Amino acid sequence: MTGELSRKKPIVNIVWFKKDLRSSDHKPLSEAASNEYPVLPLYVFEPDYWEQKDTSQRHWEFTKQSLESLRQDLGVMGQALVFLQGNILEVFDQLLKTFEINAIYAHQETGNAWTYARDISVRSWARLRGIKLIEHQNNTIIRGLTNRDIWSTERDNFLSKPTLKKPYIRPIDAELCEISTKMKFKGSTVLKNKQIGGSENGWRYLESFLEGRGNHYRVEMSSPVLAERACSRISPYLAYGNLSVREIFQFLHENHPKIKQMSPSIKSFKSRLAWKDHFSQKLEDDFSIETKCLHKSFENLRPLVPDHILLSAWENGETGFPFLDACMRYLRATGWINFRMRAMLMSFASYHLWLDWRASGQILAKFFTDYDPGIHWPQVQMQSGTTGINTVRMYNPIKQGIDQDPNATFIRKWVPELGHLSTAEIHKVGTENFNAVNFETHYPRPVVDLAKAGREAREKVWAVRRLHGFKSQAKQIVKKHGSRQNRSKDFVNDRLEIKPKASVNIQKNSDGKNAKEIGSTKKNM
């Protein structure tokens, strides 16, 4: 009898970390630590996930930094993070040889199609083995939402609840594996991030934003020259779960007297947090948004196999349009760029280059350190005009350059081939008045005729929007995914925003409707 007891496997609770790499305001961790069993905090490096087309070395570097910070934090709390590699089901099977699993605690993840299928397989695995898999709502995203009308109210209720403190963790006797991987990321030439992962670094960015960096947030967020400092820069820390949205809102509330002078900026900042959640809820409600046009009428509008010459020129910042190329090169080098410029990059690829959004969207996903599928794919479709419910917005990169970089400072830094030209000459590059011979530069000629490409794109898009039955399907999309921004105090109507000098070029479509050559400023972080 004594021998049998000595061979009995220890009972543990597993906390499975995914894109929630923090120890505070973490419901799975708090709940797992609240009962009698020791806790095994677990992160699994899944090679199949990192083979997906929207993942990159850049994402892993930020993840690894976040894991190292989390391991140290959890160690102080009682039990350091355990890092394992392999197929998640095989890892759980291996753990069953050592432990009796009381329950697995995790957050629901609004990720890409691969993680969605992975989570279904884990639920099936747990059910067949009689193991409890307890999944909690992650931030304000509601799984199984049946009525979009109630989402804003539910979001406000969630944010008003107290944040969860760091719990004490009953330790286990588990071997700690080095946080590393020998995997080679395919086609990954962009490795460095300007920002370093980990909750502590996320809080530093937020605090410095509230201590002065964000004083002119509403005005400066649209310029890549000014946005690097003026924006909060917490987007990657939200994407990897280093910070929770509720923690941020509570922090703003607690420090309101200190930041009262920043009221306009804080209002805009909170609005963008709300828009972030709004777009993530869209993907949660319909995971096909990652792979299929939201409005089915736009499917096959653009060639599914993209023009690889145009795609490569766009990806490498060699389109012959200086401001656009500067933005792409800046993004490749740093892993971040402000939202207006993201919208311009996507719009240009979809309209002027007529590239399918799935191909260009995957490239941007790899470049963004803060890549979050829940925000990314709904936004990619919105900027490509395939939602059927949003204004058709075409960004003119020459006008954007004049408005957002009037002295060509940003262009000169990231497109040094044009450094010998005057500001006026730089802003002529890509226009009808541009002559490469006269300017004596080796910078590439424009890959498309801007005016012609824009005109042809408008005609094709609006031809679809005039199809019989288009509006009825659009109404159904609004019913399922519309923002209902008037239902939440955090949404800010764009018309109330303070914007830089406008660069709006209203043109009449063939059906007499207006098409804007500018975008909104939603979702800047």
Characterise this structure.
By secondary structure, the chain is of the alpha/beta class. It is 47% helix and 7% strand. The protein has helices at 2-6, 27-32, 47-50, 57-77, 88-98, 113-129, 151-160, 199-213, 217-220, 224-230, 235-239, 245-254, 263-285, 308-315, 322-334, 339-352, 357-367, 373-384, 397-404, 409-414, 423-426, 436-439, 450-465, 470-481, and strands at residues 11-17, 39-45, 82-85, 100-107, 132-136, 507-508, 514-515. Helix 16 (339-352) packs across helix 18 (373-384). The longest helix is centred in the middle third of the chain and has 23 residues, at 263-285. Residues 1-6 and 491-525 have low confidence and may be disordered.
Gist of the model:
47% of the residues lie in helices and 7% in strands. With 525 residues, the chain is an alpha/beta fold. The relative contact order is 0.12.
Mean pLDDT: 88
Low-confidence stretches: 1-6, 491-525
The helix tally amounts to 24
Strand order of the largest sheet: 3-2-1-4-5
The largest sheet, given as strand count, sense and whether it forms a barrel, is:
5 strands, parallel
Structural class comes to alpha/beta
Basic shape: globular
SS elements, strand count: 7
Radius of gyration: 24 Å
Strand content: 5-15%
Task: Quickly list its features.
47% helix, two-stranded antiparallel sheet, single chain, alpha/beta, 525 residues, 7 strands, 7% strand, disordered C terminus
